[in-house]
Amino acid sequence: MYNILFRCSQWLSTYTSWFIIVIAVMTYFVPSLFSWVHGTIQSCILGFIMLTMGLTLTMQDIKVLASRPFDILIGTCAQFFLMPLIAWTLTIGIDSLVGILFHSSLTAILGFDFKPIIVGIILVGCCPGGVSSNIMSYLCHGDVAFSVGMTTVSTLLAPIVTPLLVLWLAGQQVEVDAVGMFLNILIVTLLPVTIGFFANLFYGKNESFKKAQAVMPAFSVLGLACIVGGVISAVRDKLMTEGIVFFLVVFLVVLCHNSLGYLTGYSAGRMFNFSKAKKRTISIEVGMQNAGLATVLASTFFAVSCPLAVIPAAVSCAWHSISGTILATWFRSRDEKN
């Protein structure tokens, strides 16, 4: 039984993005599949995913944080500065520029409300680094310890930094419950990560515990797929009403946001004379966000005021995994050629 679970875990870790896409397509045509994933259930699933991240943290990772403060500081500042800035520029900045040049808003030009895209992308940009970024750093011969350190620190800072950034950047577009968001992130991210870390600290040498750790990636991917499926199930009818143009605009903004994150992250590493491995890692860490967290936050805090804000977050869930895999493969192929 364990061997089957272990092989499933390896397969799901390798094909995460394609599995999520299949689930998303299936849910679009059969929305009842994941109609049960909403509210508290959705938050519990994300909490479980963060618990699996905590189970991988060791005292060695904490020592890495203490021994490389400059690297972690640069990476974390890039994470919480570049991605929110890019999100603001692609949405509010462009909308304002269009208004100046054409004396009309993007909403009027496109024929649908552009506000959900603004709120959704800013929310994604203000979230911490994604858990799967650690896997991508490993695949591209990056600095895995640096990757884990950046993800850990950005996750620990998220309960404070994410609500403040969203309030600052999106507060004029929609009412932001910063206090509620702080408590939600605290409960569904920081608390599970802490529990996982201490569980690993006390039981990490136990053989049964090690076996459980080895199959946890499978459940993490299944959890992420459930969150994406739940979102699509909830907004499918509204998405069909908005039409294909709305979806294409969402995907274009997500694509630009993610790609510019990779590019500016790599440029930040070059600016501070990072090694090749560290430049690759900071590129992936900055570009790949915890879009699962953004999805849960959008569903929880903007379900009434801006319900379609979950669409950019859900699209980011799938696309970040795909693009991260593509970038990691490209980095690795360059090493093989050399």
Could you explain the architecture of this structure?
- This protein is mostly helical and 338 residues long.
- The longest helix has 36 residues, at 207-242.
- The model has no long low-confidence stretch (mean pLDDT 84).
- It has 15 helices and no strands.
Task: Give a quick rundown of the structure.
The chain is mostly helical.
Shape: globular
Mean pLDDT: 84
User: Total number of helical segments?
Assistant: 15
Structural class: mainly alpha
Largest pleated sheet: none
Total strand count, please? 0
User: Which spans have pLDDT < 50 for at least 5 consecutive residues?
Assistant: none
What percent strand? under 5%
Written as H for each helix and E for each strand, in order along the chain, the element string is HHHHHHHHHHHHHHH
Any idea what the radius of gyration is? Answer: 19 Å
Proportion in helices: over 70%
- The CA-CA distance between the termini, in Å, is 42 Å
